[in-house]
Design brief:
single chain, six-stranded parallel beta sheet, 790 residues, alpha/beta, 55% helix, seven-stranded mixed beta sheet
Length: 790
């Protein structure tokens, strides 16, 4: 037969096949047996329907006939009868025992003519399956053992009361036997109780499966335990923490044990339908790898987990109730108000203000009054001719006033400039405090972001470890994958611990600047580089960086702003002004005299003894001479002028000294301006680079995260290697960290640039922001162009 003829015949057959009617899909009729009425029954059925339907979309039709959903009455005979009914019903394709008792009963059936699933078993040692080839078992409640180990680690010195539905204790005696053996082997003291009848003497309560207990009754039971300060641990995973339970095991995803079990049942049913032996399907249950603790419940019952527990568990809710919410503006305001250095600068400025008042007071008249009393020897008084009584008391008054004094006027001017220097230094200190606080605030945000990235990486590693366990159980991988992911979990835990330590250190650094307790937690409002509180946001920065000409003009504008605003420059200007006045004052000493007025008044208001009255002197043989007492009132007034004529060259040397100091200040001002210019332009270059890095790192992060999602899905399907997934996760985490670093580097440099021009955008009023932008537009106009992006 020729090749052309063979191709023609093949085409005929293909066409005929395509025109033939499609073969109807097979029907899978599912029968379910519940132990008894319970609110969880409908949830189980709904989730199982969803998972099974999703898997059997194209391969078979799933029939959920209501008559095949049988619910017992919480008695063993009824459960057995319902199982017999479905197993003997030829219309039923598969029987699922949706209860602890039904699963135990079904697992012991030896002769099964259809697929059967017993997913709610506890102990492989005491609940061994019958060996029927069409029976698939899952030890879906064996997680109780891991729960009890974790609970015992939380409360090592307490007896744990295990609470289950009373029907389970009586209908499945293997449960108590298994738990008792576990208690002995693990040295964990256990007691047993029925749900709804837990004794008040219980020291710690494990809340196991109890489907007959309504949600309200379960919450009431937990609330009673919390009132009695009794720790509780729930079988139902992290969702039970919302009901008030203290702790539970779970995964980092929102999928709880209930959903995981329905997914496993659906997977087993699909694999069995496609030819695998039900008895060969994996029966072990992958343990939940994460402990969850409700910190609200812990606080309410006075339970304080140790550091190791907190590192390895996820704390739901705040650890303490001392967290303070802060915005950047509030943090800066608090830091400025509480800073001790700034307070000291304030007192220094106040002292300089008083110095001006003191210097001014020297230009006003000074008036002094005094009282004096004296006593001299009688001989001296007698021979003083009434000028010096033996005893006297005087009142005096002295007036002095500078008419013109160059040094005093110079001192007043210099003191005023020194006051301005102190004010500018205080402003400089305030700007530095704002910069330090802003940096510390951004460092906290950066640390929070890094910690969140590390926690997400740890969650991914734990999820992948769970996936590796499940793939090994399904025979799709080996222990190599499990060990590698255990190693990755350990690595992630170590790096998460380091990230948490860095976060606490950053919190303490900010708390120190705020002068708040170092143990308080801080809740910070996040900041974006596109935040409206900044004058120059993302689009405007991009416009200024778009070409060299606009970038140059923008740089020059910021440098001019720095010259005008920086307190360092203004302080040097004030110091130069003071020194110039000092040089002028010293130079004037050669030719400008000092004029002053001085007056005095003396009143003797009491005198006694010798010399207090008229003095008589008798000249022998001639006469007696009488001298009147001196006047009791005396006064004087005078004007004084002084001009230094020769002081050995002091004045000229002092002038040269002060002139040299003036030149020193001018040189220092030039240095400050040069440094301001350099800092502004350098920070702009760094800002330009950081801004470009943001877009690149965000794109890299997005791509790496999407790549990781695809690789993880492929790994779950068995289409990718473990090493590829590890590398992809590492790349995604590194990209997320790089994006966070780029964003917060940009914000930090933006804040530093604002300090370099002595204007923090987030502290400006709307009018001040408007004025600044108008000044920028005018500056661009003076350079013959328009400001871009405004």
């Amino acid at each position: 037969m020729s090749t052309r003829r063979a191709l023609f015949i093949a085409a005929i057959f293909l066409l005929a096949g395509s025109l033939a009617p499609a073969r109807p899909a097979h029907t899978v009729r599912v029968g379910i047996v519940f132990d008894g009425p319970a609110a969880l029954n409908q949830r189980f059925e709904n989730e199982l329907r969803r998972e099974v339907t999703a898997l059997f979309t194209d391969s078979a039709k799933i029939d959920w006939e209501p008559r095949l959903i049988l619910t017992g009455d919480w008695t063993l005979p009824t459960v057995r009868a319902n199982l017999d009914k479905l197993l003997n019903d030829r219309a039923v394709t598969v029987v699922i025992a949706a209860g602890v008792v039904a699963s135990n009963e079904l697992a012991h059936r030896r002769h099964l003519t259809k697929m059967a699933f017993a997913p709610f078993l506890l102990d492989p040692a005491l609940q061994k399956p019958s060996g029927a080839r069409s029976l698939s078992v899952i030890y879906g409640i064996s997680g109780i053992f891991d729960d009890l180990k974790s609970f015992h680690h939380l409360v090592p010195n307490r007896e744990i009361t295990v609470s289950l539905d009373s029907f389970y204790w009586t209908a499945v005696p293997e449960l108590k036997k298994s738990l008792s053996a576990f208690s002995t082997s693990q040295k964990i003291p256990l007691a047993f109780a029925s749900a709804g009848a837990i004794p008040s003497s219980a020291k710690a309560i494990y809340l196991g499966p109890a489907p007959r207990l309504s949600a309200s009754d379960a919450e009431a039971e937990i609330a009673r335990a919390n009132r009695e300060k009794t720790p509780t641990f729930s079988f139902w995973g992290r969702e039970a923490l919302g009901q008030g339970a203290l702790a539970a095991m779970g995964t980092d995803s929102e999928i709880g044990r209930f959903t995981r079990l329905t997914k496993r049942i659906a997977s087993h049913l699909y694999r069995a339908w496609n030819g695998e032996s039900p008895a060969s399907l994996p029966s072990n249950w992958t343990p939940d790898g994460r402990l969850f603790i409700s910190m609200a419940t812990a606080t309410a019952i006075g339970f304080h987990p140790n550091w190791e527990t907190l590192r390895n568990a996820e704390a739901i809710g705040d650890l303490e109730n001392h967290a303070s919410r802060l915005s950047l503006e509030n943090a800066v305001r608090i830091a400025v108000e509480a800073n001790l250095e700034l307070r000291a600068k304030g007192f220094e400025t106040e002292a300089d203000v008083k110095g001006v008042a003191i210097a001014r007071s020297y230009l006003f008249p000074s008036l002094e009054a005094g009282l004096s009393a004296r006593e001299v020897d009688a001989n001296t008084a007698s021979s003083s001719f009434g000028l010096q009584p033996e005893r006297e008391a005087d009142a005096t008054a002295t007036l002095a006033m500078p008419i013109f004094n160059e040094r005093l006027w110079a001192g007043l001017s210099i003191q005023g400039d020194q006051k301005r220097v102190a004010e500018f230094k205080k402003e400089q200190t305030q700007l530095d405090i704002i910069l330090q606080t802003s940096r510390a605030y951004l460092d906290c945000l950066r640390a929070q972001r890094m910690n969140a990235i590390q926690e997400a990486d740890l969650a991914s590693s734990r999820t992948n470890l769970t996936l590796a366990h499940e793939r090994r159980s399904a025979g799709a991988s080996s222990l190599i994958d499990v060990y590698r992911w255990e190693s990755e979990v350990a690595r992630s835990e170590r790096q998460t611990n380091q990230a948490q330590a860095q976060l606490k250190i950053a919190d303490m650094a900010l708390s120190r600047l705020l002068h708040s307790p170092l143990t308080d937690s801080l809740i910070l409002d996040d900041i974006s580089y596109a935040d409206s509180r900044f004058l120059y946001r993302d689009t405007q920065i991009a416009a200024f960086f778009s070409n060299p000409w606009d970038y140059r003009i923008f740089s020059d504008f910021l440098v001019e702003q720095a010259y005008a605003n920086l307190p360092e420059v203004q302080a040097m200007d004030a110091a130069i002004s003071a020194q110039e006045r000092q040089v002028t004052s010293v130079s004037r000493q050669h030719w400008l005299p000092t004029f002053g007025l001085k007056a005095g008044f003396d009143e003797r208001f009491w005198s006694s003894g010798a010399g207090s009255g008229p003095t008589q002197i008798t000249v022998p043989n001639l006469t007696t001479l009488t001298f009147p007492a001196a006047s009791n009132t005396q006064w004087n007034v005078g004007v004084q002028m002084t001009l230094p004529l020769f002081e050995g060259g002091r004045i000229e040397a002092e002038r040269q000294q002060e002139s040299a100091r003036l030149e020193q200040y001018r040189a220092e001002r030039g240095k400050v301006r040069e440094e301001a210019d350099r800092q502004v332009r350098s920070l702009l270059e760094e800002l330009h680079a950081s801004f470009s890095a943001i877009a690149l790192s965000e794109s890299e992060s997005k791509s790496a995260r999407e790549s990781y999602r695809l690789v993880r899905d492929a790994y779950a399907r068995g289409a990718s290697q473990m090493t590829t997934l590890v590398d992809s996760q590492t790349a995604a985490t590194s990209a997320d960290q790089a994006a966070a670093v780029a964003a917060y580097d940009f914000l930090t440099q933006l804040i530093e640039l604002q300090r370099a021009v002595a204007r923090f955008d987030f502290l400006l009023t709307p009018d001040e922001k408007k004025h600044t932008l108008e000044s920028l537009q005018e500056y661009f106009k003076t350079r013959g162009t328009h400001a871009p992006g405004l």
